[in-house]
Amino acid sequence: MGVIFTALIQYPEVLDFRKLVDDLKDVKMFPKTNEINEERNNLNTKMNTYVDTDMEEYLELDFGKVDLTFNRSKVACIRIGCSWDYFLSDDETRLLIRGICEEFVRYFKQDRIIYLPDHYGLDYVYRENNIEQIITSLKKRLGDQPENIESIYKEFEEYVEDDGYYIDTLESLIEDNHNSI
What are 103-118's pLDDT values in tens digits? Predict the structure, then answer.
C-alpha cells in the first residue's frame, strides 16, 4: 500500500483503555470512525479489539480501519487505512480523516494533532517520544510546518514529493468543518 497516513495526539495522564474500547463503538461519540468501519463491515470484515492494560511497552488497539498505538509517554498514534499522499491530495478524503482525528482530539481533551507519514509516526511512538520531543524532532528533520496541509504534496513531471508534517488544531478543525457545510 505504500506510505500510510498517521496522526499523533497526546492522550490524558489517566485513560481507561477498556472504556475507550466501549466508547469507540458509540456512534454518537465517534460517528466518522464508525462510518468508515461500517463501509468495511459491508465487506464482511470483523473488527477486532485487543487491549493490554499493563502496557509493558506500548498498547495497540485495532478498530477496523482505525489502528491505535499508545506509548508510555502519553502519545497515541492513529493509523487509518488511507495512503499519506491520498490524504494530502484528495479534499474529500482529507475532510473525512480530519473529522476522525477531531473525534480523538475531543475525546482526549487535547487541542492539537500532528499529521505525518507512518514511517515517522510509528518511529516516534516506539522510541517513547513525548509530543514536545516529536515536534522538536520534526522541525529539525523537516523544518517548519507548511502554511496548509495541501502544500506538502508537490507533483512534478517524473515524481511526487510528499515528505512533511502538519500540526492541526481543534480550532482549525472546527472552523474547516463549518466551512465545508
Answer: 999 999 999 999 998 8
First to last CA, the chain: 31
Cα–Cα distance list, 154 to 89, 121, 161, 163 (Å) = 9, 21, 5, 9
The answer to whether 82 touches 136, Cβ cutoff 8 Å, is: no
As a whole number of angstroms, the distance between CA 126 and CA 6 comes to 14
The residue type found at 26 is D
Query: Could you read off the pLDDT of 156-175 as tens digits, one per residue?
Result: 777 667 778 999 988 877 67
Average pLDDT over residues 22-50: 70
134-to-114, 154, 161 alpha-carbon distances in Å: 9, 24, 22
Which strands, in side-by-side order, build the sheet including 166-169? 58-63, 66-71, 75-83, 4-10, 112-117, 166-169
